[in-house]
Specification:
about 90 residues; alpha+beta; two-stranded parallel ribbon
Length: about 90
């Protein structure tokens, strides 16, 4: 994959920082699993509780040993938590 130009990276960073969807979280009315890696330097766990509180009935899982790419770092643990959540939705 080609390297991203610096200007594109900065524009993407500005867009991420400016984006705030907190006002519409309450509109989510489907079962929602929120996952965070406790060691994530990209998406801090400081965002976990506001997401969990904003989405009614959501479930939050913080993987203490994972960082930003939990599904790649420990796929067995990540997939087990996700599958358990999905199976509970069938009931």
């Amino acid at each position: 994959r080609p390297a991203q130009p610096v200007a594109a990276f900065l524009a993407q960073t500005d867009a991420v920082i400016a984006h705030d969807a907190s006002a519409v979280l309450r509109e989510i009315d489907v079962p929602t699993l929120i996952t965070f890696g406790a060691r994530d330097l990209v998406c801090s766990t400081r965002f976990a509780e506001p997401l969990n509180s904003g989405i009614g009935g959501s479930e939050l899982v913080v993987f203490e040993h994972l960082s930003h790419a939990g599904l790649h770092e420990d796929p067995e643990t990540f997939n087990r938590a996700t599958l358990d959540f999905l199976l509970r939705q069938r009931s």
